[in-house]
Each structure stands twice: as C-alpha cells, then as structure tokens.
Amino acid sequence: EIVLTQSPGTLSLSPGERATLSCRASQTVRNNYLGWYQQKPGQAPRFLIYAASSRATGIPDRFSGSGSGTDFTLTISRLEPEDFAVYYCQQYGSSVYTFGQGTKLEI
Amino acid sequence: QVQLQESGPGLVKPSETLSLTCAVSDSSISSGFYWAWIRQPPGKGLEWIGSIYHTGVTYYNPSLKSRLTMSVDTSKNQFSLKLTSMTAADTAVYYCARTLYDYYFDYWGQGTLITVSS
C-alpha cells in the first residue's frame, strides 16, 4: 500500500499570498493517479485536481497541480479568504485508494 | 449535478453490524462509474472503505475486508454497506462518493456521523 505524506502539517499565510502544499508518496504513483481535495469544517471534501495536474470542473485557475512519480505539489497562486481549509492528496494503485493525512491552510 | 445521500442509524452498539445506504439521484447508478464509501474519524483524515460497480463487482480496503460487505440495488438507484463487529475505532463520518475514471472521487454525499457506543 502506498503511503502519502503531506507537508507541512499546517501552513499559515495571508490572503493574496501563494500557497505551496507538498504530497510525497512512499512508492511511485502509477500513471500519476494523484488527486487533491479541499475540505472545510463540517463539509464533505471537494474535488480539485486529478491526474496530478488537471483541474476538475468548475475549479478556479488559481489552483494548480504538478509533479510526477513520488513528489506532487498543489499550488494556490493568490489565496482568497474561502481557500483556507484542509487539503488532502489521494492516490490509486493496485485496487487500493489512500489519502494523505492533510495540510491545514490557515490565515 | 449528481447528488448522493447517506442514511444510517447514527448510533451503533459495540459488536453490532453497521448498515448504511447511499441513494443516488440525477445520475443512474448503472452509468459506468464505480461508487465508494469513505470514512473520517472525528478530527482525523480520510480512509477509503470500499468500492462497487453496478454489476456487483467490489473491491475493499484490505484492513476492513474481513468485516465488510457492499451491495448495489439498481432498481432503487442505491448502494449499501454492512460493516460487522463494530468498535469505538469505527466511529466516524461515513461518506458515499462517485468514482471518476476509476481513480478519483468527484461527487460526495454530505456524510453521516456513526457513533459506536453502548
């Protein structure tokens, strides 16, 4: 089973700044089957990015994903107040899905 | 816009079996997607439980496989989960979700909190 480790655990930034969140896999993520999700308190996760770098439908272009193999990054170019939340990466491999432990993006 | 709605008991006693159902609307459950259960213990991260196709093909998280059964009812456009031998460690918000391209979860239900307590 592939373990995903996200860093940092907490990221403190201000609106308008750039956020860079990291997700590292314990093994190569096959075909870059890597997704990102945003979760706000009391809500279900929201699907942001798939295939490491493709934005899901309706996701603003300030969100971008990059990376391959074992190292992946979610970048939010200019933070809006509504972007402060917890972010999870997720991978699929060998019929198993795993999530990272999350990065909390706080003001 | 696909909508998913979980339903379940809210409270389960230790050693009992949890039964949850996810009703899918604005999309046919037979439309070529896998459907999944995912849970989140209070204050913790996300854990995939298992996935099912409309034909009944399933695959489960190895850590839960011995206690888990998933099923699908195409006539009611819903799918279900049964998890046996519940313990306090199974206390979590349980989400159902649609799987996009077999690899990602694009639509989620609002979640239902299941508490295991006597």
Outline the structure in words.
The complex is a heterodimer of chains A (107) and B (118). Chain A is mainly β. Chain A has strands spanning 4-7, 10-12, 19-25, 34-39, 46-50, 54-55, 63-68, 71-76, 86-93, 96-99, 103-106. In chain A, strands 2, 4, 5, 6, 9, 10 and 11 form a seven-stranded mixed beta sheet that branches. A four-stranded antiparallel beta sheet of chain A has the order 1-3-8-7, with no helix packed on it. The termini of chain A are far apart. Chain B contains no helices and eleven strands. Chain B has strands spanning 3-7, 11-12, 18-25, 34-40, 47-52, 58-60, 68-73, 78-83, 92-100, 104-108, 112-116. In chain B, the strands form two sheets. In chain B, strands 2, 4, 5, 6, 9, 10 and 11 form a seven-stranded mixed beta sheet that branches. Chain B has a four-stranded antiparallel beta sheet with strand order 1-3-8-7, with no helix packed on it. In chain B, a hairpin with a 5-residue loop joins strand 5 (47-52) and strand 6 (58-60). Chain A binds chain B through residues 1, 33, 35, 37, 43-47, 50-51, 56, 88, 90, 92, 95-102, and chain B through 36, 45-48, 51, 59, 61-62, 95, 100-111.
In short:
The complex is a heterodimer of chains A (107) and B (118). Chain A has 107 residues and is an all-beta fold. Chain A is 0% helix and 51% strand.
